[in-house]
Amino acid sequence: MPTDESADLIELTREVCRRELAPRVDAAEAAGEMPREIFRTLGRSGLLSLPYDEELGGGGVPYEVYLQVVEEIASVWMSVAVGVSVHALTCFPTVTAGTPAQQESLLRDMLSGELLGAYCLSEREAGSDIASMRTRAVEHEGGFSIRGTKAWISHAGHADYYTSFVRTDDLGGKGLSCFVVPADAAGLTVATPERKMGLACDPVAEVTFDDVHVDADRLVGERGQGMQLALAALDAGRLGIAAAATGLAQAALDLAVRYAGERQQFGRSIGGFQGLGFMLADMEAAVSSARSSYLFAARLKDAGRPFSKQAAVAKLMATDNAMKVTTDAVQVLGGAGYTADFPAERFMRDAKVTQIFEGTNQIQRLVISRHLLNH
Amino acid sequence: MNIVVCVKYVPDAQGDRTFKDDNTTDREGVDGLLSELDEYAVEAALKLKESGEGEVTVVTVGPEAAADAVKKSLQMGADKGVHVCDDAIHGSDAAATSLLLAEAIKKSGEYDLVLAGLASTDGTMSVVPAMLAERLGLPQVTQVSTLEVEGGTVKGRRDSDVASDTIEASLPALVSVTDQINEPRYPSFKGIMAAKKKPVETWSLADLGVDAERVGLAGSWTKVTSFAKRPPREKGEIVTDEGDGGTKLAEYLAAQKFV
């Protein structure tokens, strides 16, 4: 921790997690309920706006510290940690490219802690290949009219605004623009949520824009700057996912260690058998190296140095490791791990999506190799 | 309105709490924190401050680490802190503690209202507020679940099993509040940053003009002579229902004099 205040911030996060998140997580995940009130509690404590400048209404916290907050939250409730990371992502374009007027009129509210955002980038036919997106904004008097459908949108139906990337010009990747669309805009509808494998408390659905009018002052950044903003936001967002995956893996490891110490077979705790002891050691190494890789990337970012490659490495490492560690945790718990009476199986289900969203791990490898080969 | 809130630094109730060789609370084996029951008093003070004008001062008596309880209160929004800290205080009982609190409150300046929690989560005696009121010569309104201040009076409701009393007193007064009165806020990150710049006074016995013989283990009127761990919970009795489960349950409850 770089300062006493950062240590106090982590302490505050742990307290909120212990008192507000831990008592609710199991029931809410089983029921698949979006814990909107939890986000208000986090917001009021300033935990939804940490990495952005104080002048903009944020916490002015280094990324290195913000990510540790995300990790702490994930170690108790993965869906909420992902939500915190997604919210930070939705603020990114207005923070980096918004006009002073937009930072006053839009961003203040976005960083107030009361609002929750959604990030509309993917479409059914435009996932990794975002430049092929078809949702279109047509300029008309006083603004734009958006038409199309976005897919895989976290917080859909619960968000207060949708940071949306849409096509404004037929110029491939150079023809995309970013808009902040209010949730109550006429013509914006949310489909039935997807039936997912994990992250049950993170509602994901398609969002359809049926000639949704947005005022011109909700275009964030230059017309055509959308792709650049989306990719930059994802560089930072990937670190949030890496930190969340690390917290999830830590929770699985802690559970496995506790169980291996308590469970008796052949007259001794099973952790005493080298077969399991070594598994736990590998899990610890996987969690620690994941943490090191996201902290390294975060320090580069905090120092103002290029961090895109290292963010991709961190996302790749932390999420692949989380998949491995959570799978092994189920194994350590044996039959108990396969039941819903223990959270190991939920950790494993929650881990899977981290290898998929915010750039699949195949895309991370593409990003890394392009950096290496200067493509 | 100037409000003083008494807070206590206690071992985390979720930890494995124990005593030291001299039968005082072990403060090293378990992490300490602001007594959760005192958070309600801090919150009550902050609400009063926010609805009008005034300043909230938190006062604690305790070892060096007790500064954390003051810090947490300042992070929540209190304006300044007083920490009475002196090696000679170690082992002070409730009466001695109330003496120290009274002297610290007098020294801290003008006040209209002194707030305290229901009880500490470690000692749980719930007598310090009453003793403190006596020492300060204040009317005491203890264990209330509501609190209103209007003009020069304070009004609160004390709930019991049989009745709810509404109690009114003229200011200055001492009020202790229950955990039903509000929902304490968490500090915000801005609060954490702001707390750094808030003034905290640390006073010794000499600063307060209190004779060391009146406090500490030797100066306390009460003494813990021995302690025993609560016996572990025994295995419950399982009633197998063979059509007479209800009767058996009733018999059990009657035998234990529950019904």
From TrEMBL, chain B:
Top-rank taxon: Bacteria
InterPro entries, per the entry: ETF_a/b_N, ETF_b, ETF_beta_N, Rossmann-like_a/b/a_fold
Single Gene Ontology MF annotation: electron transfer activity
A cellular component term, taken from the record's GO annotations: cytosol
Pfam families: ETF
Entry keywords, A to Z: Electron transport, Transport
Residue ranges of domain Electron transfer flavoprotein alpha/beta-subunit N-terminal in the record: 22-212
Ranges in coiled-coil conformation: none
Cofactor dependence: FAD
Family: Belongs to the ETF beta-subunit/FixA family.
Complex formation: Heterodimer of an alpha and a beta subunit.
Function of the protein: The electron transfer flavoprotein serves as a specific electron acceptor for other dehydrogenases. It transfers the electrons to the main respiratory chain via ETF-ubiquinone oxidoreductase (ETF dehydrogenase).
This protein's name: Electron transfer flavoprotein subunit beta
